[in-house]
């Protein structure tokens, strides 16, 4: 099968501080993530999972290396564009442990905010948002405020928001950490479905070993290097 | 496009309105301060306008009778009255005193003029009840703010006076309410000492002073004569200081209330600066309260202009609401002030522009915080 690369990382390094406070987190990471793939990123706490995720998301500056997002090389020892925020807005969807919906916007406004900033007309963005909310079975909550929804409903709304800009990549930082096992399975199954249905590459940071069999592949950080494994091999340290 | 400022304000409407009202009360005080200044200028001119004299003849070398003490002999009016170009001249006195009323002593300025003379000091259009002075003794016309009633008996000095008229809006240049008494009564009140004092002075060999003194002689000029030239003639021949209506007005507004107006001006500037700082602090705090949301907005890719626009719109709206609250507050309380407060639309418009500029300046602290917000804070680093 001809798989399209969504993320390509080559020889990526990340360190913090200088002199005595120097800490190296990632050393020479190289890997690829394909469209339609759900990849788990697992490693012990402090190993640099979120840092790696944020470097791919154009939020954290790498020390050196190369990052491609789709066909666009965005980083080669420096950001190749000043508009990293535009890249995030157009190519990436973020999901977090907490839903982080904007509390003063209702659900449909939260979902349509980024598309409208991207220039999608209001009516069209709302129509697409409603389709997403229906997909996640929370369409009846479209005009409710986040404070009026349960944790699970808010998390689904947050996933809908991450998908609203039709991203090529979804970066999920421990999206199941605050959920019980059943809900966690629901969310990961949902991410898997999104990856398959929408042909999106999903990288999910997780500490939950039970979720790994649902993923297509596992990336681990071992000795500051990123190692790719089949999901059945993976164990969280 | 979703208006983030509108949605955020709707979400915290009560808090936003209360905060705006608080700032508005502060700005209301600014309006009142400006109104006090306007009132001072108007008050300063009421008496001089009511008297309506063309010339003010006062003690030589003084800026009398309001800005400096002045005493001239009453009969000076006769020699001034015959000067070429003078139509009529009268003596007038001014004296601050305490008048007993049912609610206690009230500080007033007593204006003494000759009720049978040619230049009455009372502006009849201000009369609300009763009449002007008709007798040479023991009658008084009082302005309504003092609290005296028509026909009421009032003890002043050694005598009892009857209130025969009530005026409205008659005030001295300092804003004190006025009473009018006859020149003869005023001279006794001002220049006649008590018996004990007279005996004491005689024991010291001091000769009794004449009470036929006035603080100024006021004059009307004949039509066709140049007021300044007549004033120069009087100065040359009578060795007195003479001021025209315009000069006396300038003395009143410049020498008497200039310092007070500067003081009020400084207070006003300080209040505007304090209001700006308070708005800035409120906006800074409001920005800090939603810094997590701002980090999320940056993380999901919202451009700075969208977030900055939200902060600036919120600040401007707060400024506008505060300005409206300021006007409501000022109009609700300005009549309660003991002295005249004049609220004018041009002053309010200037304050509105100042508030808008102050709001934009205040929003900079919030904008700075927005620009510095790190999207990584959204996920805890």
What key phrases describe this protein's structure?
heterodimer, A: 237 residues, alpha/beta, Rossmann fold, 6-stranded mixed sheet, 4-stranded antiparallel sheet, 31% helix, globular, B: 381 residues, alpha+beta, 2 domains, 10-stranded mixed sheet, two-stranded antiparallel ribbon, 12 strands, elongated
Give an overview in words:
The complex is a heterodimer of chains A (237) and B (381). With 237 residues, chain A is an alpha/beta fold. In chain A, 31% of the residues lie in helices and 28% in strands. Chain A has one domain (38-60, 84-233): P-loop containing nucleotide triphosphate hydrolases (Rossmann fold, 3-Layer(aba) Sandwich). Chain A has helices at residues 49-56, 84-91, 107-117, 122-135, 151-164, 181-198; strands at 5-16, 23-34, 38-42, 64-69, 72-76, 92-95, 169-173, 201-205, 217-222, 225-230. A six-stranded mixed β-sheet of chain A has the order 6-7-8-3-9-10, sandwiched between helices. In chain A, strands 2-1-4-5 form a four-stranded antiparallel β-sheet, with helices on one face. Chain B is an alpha+beta fold and 381 residues long. Chain B has two domains: 4-43 and 259-379, no CATH class; 60-239, no CATH class. In chain B, 51% of the residues lie in helices and 19% in strands. Chain B has eleven helices and twelve strands. Chain B has helices at 4-11, 13-51, 76-81, 183-191, 195-203, 227-238, 245-256, 258-289, 291-299, 304-333, 345-372; strands spanning 55-58, 72-73, 86-101, 104-113, 127-130, 139-143, 153-156, 159-167, 178-182, 213-214, 216-221, 241-244. In chain B, the strands form two sheets. In chain B, strands 1, 3, 4, 5, 6, 7, 8, 9, 11 and 12 form a ten-stranded mixed β-sheet that branches. Chain B has a two-stranded antiparallel ribbon with strand order 2-10. Chain B starts with a helix and ends in a 9-residue tail after the last helix. The chains are: A alpha/beta (237), B alpha+beta (381). The A-B interface holds A 50, 54, 57, 59-60, 85-90, 92, 94, 96, 100, 102-105, 109, 112-114, 116-117, 122, 145, 161, 165, 173 and B 1-2, 4, 7-8, 10-12, 292-293, 296-303, 306, 375-376, 378-379, 381.
């Amino acid at each position: 099968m001809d798989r399209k690369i969504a993320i390509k990382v080559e020889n990526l390094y990340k360190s913090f501080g200088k002199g005595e406070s120097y800490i190296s987190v990632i050393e020479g990471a190289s890997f690829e993530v394909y469209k339609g793939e759900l990849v788990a990123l697992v490693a012990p706490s402090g190993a640099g999972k979120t840092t790696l995720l944020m470097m791919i998301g154009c939020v954290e500056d790498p020390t050196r290396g190369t990052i491609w997002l789709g066909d666009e090389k965005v980083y080669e020892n420096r950001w190749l564009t000043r508009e990293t925020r535009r890249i995030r807005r157009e190519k990436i969807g973020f999901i977090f442990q907490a839903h982080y919906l904007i509390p003063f916007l209702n659900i449909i406004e939260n979902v349509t905010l980024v598309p409208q900033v991207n220039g999608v007309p209001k009516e069209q963005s709302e129509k697409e948002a409603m389709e997403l909310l229906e997909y996640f079975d929370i369409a009846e909550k479209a005009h409710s405020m986040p404070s009026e929804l349960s944790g699970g409903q808010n998390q689904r709304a947050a996933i809908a928001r991450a998908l609203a800009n039709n991203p090529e990549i979804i970066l999920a930082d421990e999206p199941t950490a605050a959920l019980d096992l059943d809900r966690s399975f629901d969310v990961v199954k949902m991410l898997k479905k999104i990856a398959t249905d929408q042909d999106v590459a999903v990288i999910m940071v997780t500490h939950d070993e039970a979720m790994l069999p649902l993923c297509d592949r596992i990336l681990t950080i071992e000795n500051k290097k990123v190692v790719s494994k089949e999901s059945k091999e993976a164990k969280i340290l | 496009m979703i208006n983030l400022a509108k949605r955020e304000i709707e979400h915290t409407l009560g808090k936003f309105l209360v905060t705006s009202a608080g700032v508005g009360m502060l700005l209301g005080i600014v309006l009142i301060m400006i109104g006090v200044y306007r009132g001072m200028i108007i008050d300063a001119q009421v008496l001089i306008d009511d008297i309506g004299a063309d010339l003010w003849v006062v003690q030589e070398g003084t800026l009398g009778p309001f800005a400096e003490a002045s005493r001239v002999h009453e009969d000076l009016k006769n020699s001034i009255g015959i000067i070429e170009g003078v139509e009529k001249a009268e003596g007038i006195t001014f004296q601050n005193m305490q008048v007993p009323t049912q609610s206690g002593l009230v500080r007033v300025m007593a204006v003494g003029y000759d009720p049978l003379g040619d230049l009455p000091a009372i502006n009849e259009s201000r009369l609300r009840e009763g009449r002007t002075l008709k007798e040479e003794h023991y009658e008084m016309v009082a302005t309504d703010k003092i609290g005296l009633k028509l026909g009421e008996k009032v003890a002043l000095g050694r005598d009892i006076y009857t209130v025969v008229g009530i005026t409205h809006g008659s005030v001295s240049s300092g804003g004190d309410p006025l009473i009018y008494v006859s020149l003869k009564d005023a001279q006794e009140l001002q220049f006649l000492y008590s018996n004990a004092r007279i005996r004491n002075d005689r024991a010291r060999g001091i000769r009794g002073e004449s009470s036929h003194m006035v603080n100024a002689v006021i004059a009307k000029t004949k039509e066709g004569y140049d007021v300044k030239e007549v004033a120069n003639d009087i100065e040359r021949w009578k060795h007195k200081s003479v001021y025209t209506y315009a000069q006396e007005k300038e003395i009143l507004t410049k020498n008497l209330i200039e310092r007070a107006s500067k003081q009020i001006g400084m207070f006003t500037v300080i209040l505007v600066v304090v209001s700006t700082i308070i708005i800035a602090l409120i906006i800074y705090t409001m920005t800090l309260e939603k810094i997590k949301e701002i980090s999320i907005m940056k993380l999901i890719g919202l451009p700075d202009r969208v977030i900055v626009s939200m902060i600036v719109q919120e600040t401007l709206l707060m400024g506008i609401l505060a300005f409206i609250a300021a006007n409501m507050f000022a109009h609700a309380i300005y009549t309660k002030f003991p002295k005249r407060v004049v609220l004018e639309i041009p002053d309010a418009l200037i304050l509105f522009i100042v508030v808008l500029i102050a709001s934009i300046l205040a929003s900079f602290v919030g904008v700075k915080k927005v620009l510095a917000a790190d999207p990584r804070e959204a996920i805890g680093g």
